[in-house]
Amino acid sequence: MPVLVASDLDRTLIYSAAALALTMPDARAPRLLCVEVHESRPLSYLTETAAGLLSELGDAAVFVPTTTRTRKQYQRISLPGPPPTYAICANGGHLLVDGVSDPDWHASVTARLAEECASLDEVREHLMVTADPLWVRKHRIAEDLFAYLVVERELLPEDWVKELAVWAENRGWTVSLQGRKIYAVPKPLTKSAAVREVARRTGATLTLAAGDSLLDADLLLAADQGWRPGHGELADAGWTAPAISALPERGVLAGERILREFLRVARQGTV
């Protein structure tokens, strides 16, 4: 039976220049490979060693990129190794099969959101009214499924995020602060549900996962074994679970370590 590897991308496997955390002397810094260019500028990286590991993983397991990115944002990324047959975008709102969104999956997700939580319009209106233009750079809607703000972190009042989280919780939504972005995401919109669907389709009996943010917690809990890096929301909160390994590595070297762990367990075929 195939092993399924579902991994978050940003700040888990790939890293912006600001998130690399290259704390070693310059002469000992790892060689990097750029895997994303946006508006003619390099944007995301992994180490060359990680690139080799990812290529090997594509041959050893069913590798499924699992991201909160929109489809357009995901398609900017050029990962090493064989092109993944499956990818999960928009936090589970789109299940891509050979690069094309499965319409039946998307329809089932949108129907569930309509039944189980407050509308996107209500959340968007609340963000527009309560977020201060002093520290908000952009208001964004992703795939007509969820909303996020791009903010100036040094100006962002900490209490505002906590108050938003309470307001959202009462309406069936989750709030996640990741770098300069504040996400408001419906609770029924999960990576784990889409991963379970891929496992059903592929016949995988072993699922491995990795992620760094609050939005990855359900993904990690749904896996047979998972890893989180030493940075991010989950690390900051000290979050853990019985089958989750909290790694000490931070930044781009954490991505390399996660891929080593994926490959080790995938080759064993068991946890």
Automatic annotation (TrEMBL):
The lineage of its organism: Bacteria, Bacillati, Actinomycetota, Actinomycetes, Kitasatosporales. This is HAD family hydrolase. It comes from the Bacteria. Gene3D superfamilies: HAD superfamily/HAD-like (3.40.50.1000). One of its GO terms (molecular function) is hydrolase activity. Keywords: Hydrolase. The keyword Glycosyltransferase does not apply. The keyword Membrane does not apply.
